[in-house]
């Protein structure tokens, strides 16, 4: 396959960026999207040019490191697929691909297609955990969990924190990420003690960094793990309950 | 364990606490709750408004009697126009909350994406109605201002002074430009309702997988009924069905 890439090149966080055009020639349809970029980069290095910086790690679709806006879609055209799991057979010979980094003030650009997603870490720090006592390990399965709750919590826990939801959201909102984390813990018995503190604290930090949800559903469509916006409604409900509870106990 | 608990009120130490709704309004998520609740108030209003106006088809007497009844509601228990003014007060407060929250959230969203994507966005789920809420909202707002100036205050109404409510409506809708504005505004209202009715369930956290598919059906049905009824009035006047 031969493709034309228009790639966002930006030397540093404050440097002005622009699109550069590259020809990706002799690309196997069976290669992954990132392998294609590796090939393009090797050729750039041979020519003495600066390679394209992009985010990647496990390349198995489970670490949440990769993420590129491909032709106006977060993670590209294939649904429920992270950029690393996208293959070149999803494209046609002769296609022009436009590659951009995630764009939101919550994810400042570091270089080229690489963004700083530590705002997600701030949200997790605010409450995306459970507090446990140290000591000897408790027996496994000591706390019974209803099967339906476990399944639903697992659906939320599938979130890999890649940031595609924010990238795809026309408002730059991080509702789907935060809702997935809030619900994942809030659905399980181990998450109950901090349930209402968690949702209020995580939402507060989320709103410091990101936009506000208008229920367009673009995040769900972009999510490589297919996480449902049902979790956003769940978080909204928990948030109101928490506001009532926190008042009662204040 | 987190010691910082967001009780939200700095006044916790004082004797007076921040009212719950004010506290809720401080967060973007709370603003969405209040937008959804005020939205529900408007839904009730636009439905009642459309149903009431169907009396146009029953002729001048029925319509004028209905208009007079709106002022006489609960009279003589309450003085004349009390209920009407109460409803107006609720609507005005709801409108202020709905619009101010929308403006503040839009500002927040612009800040969250100061630089838009350079390439063309390929939307998958976000439909036209969802992406144009701000614009359809502005169109409906401007229309409501004109509509009040036309039929409530009578400033721009083409009928002679002292004309009945029925005659004022017919006189107004007989002007093609007014009828066209009415049609455009109601189509905008339709898009606003189509997304708003569905969206309010999400904002209010009303989500149950067994009933979720009904939310879209309800949104479509509500929009078709209200907008369909509203659109029929200027068309009926223009084609001479009502005169």
Explain this structure to me?
The complex is a heterodimer of chains A (250) and B (243). Chain A has eight helices and seven strands, in the order E-E-H-E-E-E-E-E-H-H-H-H-H-H-H. Chain A has 250 residues and is of the alpha+beta class. Chain A folds into two domains: 108 residues, Beta-grasp domain (Ubiquitin-like (UB roll), Roll), CATH 3.10.20; 132 residues, Alpha-helical ferredoxin (Fumarate Reductase Iron-sulfur Protein, Chain B, domain 2). In chain A, the strands form two sheets. A five-stranded mixed beta sheet of chain A has the order 2-1-5-3-4. The longest helix of chain A has 20 residues. By secondary structure, chain B is mainly alpha-helical. Chain B has one domain: 3 helical TM bundles of succinate and fumarate reductases (Up-down Bundle). Chain B starts with 19 loop residues before the first helix and ends in a 5-residue tail after the last helix. Chains A and B meet through helix 6, helix 7 and helix 8 of A and helix 1, helix 2, helix 4 and helix 8 of B.
Number of β-strand runs of chain B: 0
When the domains of chain B are counted, the total is 1
What CATH architecture of the largest domain in chain A do you see? Answer: Orthogonal Bundle
First-to-last CA distance of chain B: 72 Å
Structural class of chain A: alpha+beta
Which key phrases capture this entry?
heterodimer, A: 250 residues, alpha+beta, Ubiquitin-like (UB roll), Fumarate Reductase Iron-sulfur Protein, Chain B, domain 2, 2 domains, five-stranded mixed β-sheet, two-stranded antiparallel ribbon, 8 helices, 7 strands, B: 243 residues, mainly alpha, 3 helical TM bundles of succinate and fumarate reductases, 68% helix, 0% strand, disordered N terminus
């Amino acid at each position: 396959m031969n493709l034309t890439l228009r790639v966002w090149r930006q030397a540093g966080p404050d440097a002005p960026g622009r699109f550069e055009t590259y020809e990706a020639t002799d690309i196997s349809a069976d290669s992954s999207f990132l392998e294609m970029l590796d090939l393009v980069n090797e050729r750039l290095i041979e020519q003495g040019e600066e390679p394209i910086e992009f985010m990647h790690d496990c390349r198995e679709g489970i670490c949440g490191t990769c993420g590129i806006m491909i032709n106006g879609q977060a993670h590209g055209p294939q649904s429920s697929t992270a950029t690393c799991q996208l293959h070149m057979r999803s494209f046609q010979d002769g296609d022009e691909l436009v590659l951009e980094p995630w764009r939101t003030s919550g994810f400042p650009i570091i270089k080229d297609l690489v963004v700083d997603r530590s705002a997600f870490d701030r949200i997790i720090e605010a409450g995306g955990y459970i507090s446990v006592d140290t000591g000897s390990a408790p027996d496994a399965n000591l706390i019974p969990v209803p099967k339906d709750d476990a399944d639903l919590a697992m659906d939320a826990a599938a979130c890999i924190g890649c940031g595609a939801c924010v990238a795809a959201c026309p408002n730059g909102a991080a509702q789907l990420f935060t809702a997935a984390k809030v619900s994942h813990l809030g659905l399980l018995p181990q998450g109950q003690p901090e349930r209402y503190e968690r949702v209020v604290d995580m939402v507060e930090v989320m709103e410091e960094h990101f936009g506000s949800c208008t229920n367009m559903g673009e995040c769900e469509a972009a999510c490589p793990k297919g996480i449902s916006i049902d979790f956003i409604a769940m978080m909204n409900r928990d948030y109101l309950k928490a506001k009532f509870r926190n008042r009662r106990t204040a | 364990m987190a010691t910082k608990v967001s009780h939200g009120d700095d006044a916790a130490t004082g004797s007076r606490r921040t009212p719950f709704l004010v506290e809720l309004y401080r967060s973007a998520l709370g603003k969405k709750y209040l937008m959804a609740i005020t939205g529900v108030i408007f839904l009730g209003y636009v439905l009642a408004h459309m149903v009431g106006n169907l009396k146009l088809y029953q002729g001048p007497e029925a319509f004028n009697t209905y208009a007079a009844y709106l002022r006489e509601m609960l009279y003589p228990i309450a003085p004349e126009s009390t209920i009407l003014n109460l409803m107006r007060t609720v609507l005005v407060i709801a409108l202020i909350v709905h619009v101010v929250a929308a403006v503040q959230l839009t500002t927040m969203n612009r800040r969250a994406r100061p630089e838009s994507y350079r390439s063309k966005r390929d939307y998958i789920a976000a439909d036209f109605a969802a992406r144009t809420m701000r614009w359809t909202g502005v169109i409906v707002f401007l229309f409501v201002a004109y509509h009040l100036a036309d039929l409530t205050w009578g400033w721009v109404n083409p009928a002679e002074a002292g004309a009945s409510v029925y005659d004022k409506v017919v006189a107004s809708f007989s002007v093609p430009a007014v009828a066209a504005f009415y049609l455009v505004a109601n189509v905008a209202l339709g898009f606003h309702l189509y997304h708003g009715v569905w969206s309010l369930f999400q904002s209010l956290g009303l989500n149950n997988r067994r009933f979720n598919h009904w939310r879209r059906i309800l949104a479509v049905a509500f929009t078709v009924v209200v907008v369909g009824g509203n659109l029929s009035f200027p068309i009926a006047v223009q084609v001479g069905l009502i005169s």
